[in-house]
Every structure is written in structure tokens, then in C-alpha cells.
Specification:
This is Tripartite-type tricarboxylate transporter receptor subunit TctC. Pfam families: TctC. The chain has 320 residues and is an alpha/beta fold. It folds into two domains: 161 residues, D-Maltodextrin-Binding Protein, domain 2, CATH 3.40.190; 97 residues, D-Maltodextrin-Binding Protein, domain 2 (3-Layer(aba) Sandwich). 42% of the residues lie in helices and 18% in strands. Helix 2 links the parallel strand 1 and strand 2.
Length: 320
Amino acid sequence: MQRRQIIQWGAASLAAPTITARAQSFPVKPIKLVIAFPAGGPTDITMRVLADNASKILGQPVVVENKPGAGGTLPAQALQGTSADGYTLAQIPLGVFRLPYTTKINWDPVKDISYVLNVTGYAFGVVVPADSPLKTWTHFVAWAKANPGKLSYGSTGTMTSPHLTMELAAQKLGMELLHVPYKGSADLMQAILGGQLMAAADSTGFAPQVEAGKLRVLNTWGAERLAKFPDAPTLKELGLDLVQNSPFGIGAPKGTPTAVVKRLHDAFKQAMEQDSYKTALARYDMVPMYMSTSAYKKFAQDTFTREKALVEKLGLAKPT
């Protein structure tokens, strides 16, 4: 028994330097960063700038792959069963923490992801076509109440923050809305500009269309008004005790070596601090929203608990 313990200790002591050496040399090949929304939207544009910055720091390309759909949860699902070597990373939107409450899955969003860091969050709002008779949020609410189930609005997907926040607002105000999900902001903007929707709930990827006079902002969802849309009231100003900025960050497969996670954390934190990333975010009224590896993991745990209560409140939980 004693000889077996010595052999096991010897094997472990030999393995430790090997793992350390691999981490110190990491990365030796390109890294894939899977994001949850299509090309051309605010998430894609800002994350590509971040990836480019990180590439220069890491000395290897960080290649962005778009995997939209399923409420933004596909990148996190793609981490399951992937080698825990740091070469596959994923954007982790808030929808990931709602997934087990709405869909049967065989993995845990808190335990089965190595959280690297949080990078930013969205600024959200509701827009309507510029020629819409719904001139204000008051008009929106009145029309929806007078026409139950007929006021169509689009979001970037079922169970995303725009969808759930709108449904929560509707519940609080006694509205019944018609929700139409899309895969991302680019598709959603095409739909509302094409006359297929009466309204859209989205991140401020709609800003260029507002500035071009094609859309009008009815409200925004931060704690304060956005500098870009100073005339648009917040939900809180409109009497709804709601603030939504939907933080998101980067995760790696469960079991990724601590030293590799630290290398990724340090590189992406430095990438976040560069002016090119801040400028890209500012186009969409987004700002860097840093959380360290430990803080981001704690955020994941807390959010997982909080989102359960929200899904249950809206009656969207899967049957038990």
C-alpha cells in the first residue's frame, strides 16, 4: 500500500510540471471564440475588436465564430465535451443561466463552465418605425391594452433579456403582446424596417437607424437616460421598477487549467482596456464592464438563482 502511494505521488509530481509548462507556453495555435449572435450586429462587431486586441497580446489569432439561435445559448452548449485546453472559448449571455429552467439539458451552467472574465453589457430599449402612430410609450401601452395580443414586437430570441424584460413589463402593466423572435439584431432590424413588426426590443444596435430618422426610441432600460438618446425616458421614469443591462463575458470548458484561465483573463482584460474596444462599444452605448475570474463565477452563481425566480414568475418554466 505504501509503495502504491509513493508511485501515485511520483506520477502526480511528474504531471504537475508538464501541465505548468503547457500553460506557460499557451497558446501555441489559434483560439476560437464562439459568439451567440450573427455577423453584423453590435455583439459581433465589438467582440471582433476585442478578439483582435487579444490576438496581438497572446501572439496567436483569436478567431470569432458566430453561432446564433436558441436564445444565445449555443456557444455555451458548444463548450460541453470540448477539450479543456483553452483553445475554445464562448460568449456567455444571460440566457445561459435561464436554460435549465426552460429546457431539459444534461449540464450545469455554473459548474460546467470555467468562467474567465466579464467584458461588457448591453444598453437596451424599445423602438418603433419613425412613422408609427405609437409616438410614446404611453401610446404603446394604451394600444396594446385596447388590442390584446395584436401589438407585435421582435427580440433577439426567445428567453433573451429583451424578450423576458418586455414580458415582465407587459405583466406589470396588464398588456398582452405578440412576441416574434429573431436570431440577432441584424435580422431584427431588417424585419422592423421592412414593416413586419410594430416594435422591437433590442440592444442599441438600432442607433444608426434612429440617427437616420428611420426608427424612434420609446424608452431605454438603464438606470439613467442614455447620452445618445436624451429624450427617451428609462423604464424607471415610466413607473416600472426595471433596470436591465445584461452583462456578458467569456467562458472556457470545465476543467481548463487555472494557469491557462489566468493567461486568458490577463490577455482579455488588457484587450478590454484598449481605446479601440472602448470606441467600438461606445457606438452602441456600451461600456467595459470588467469582472475578474472569481467575481464572474460568483455573478454566475447569483444570476442562476435570480433567473429561476424570473422564469417562474413569468410562467415560462418547463413542466416538472
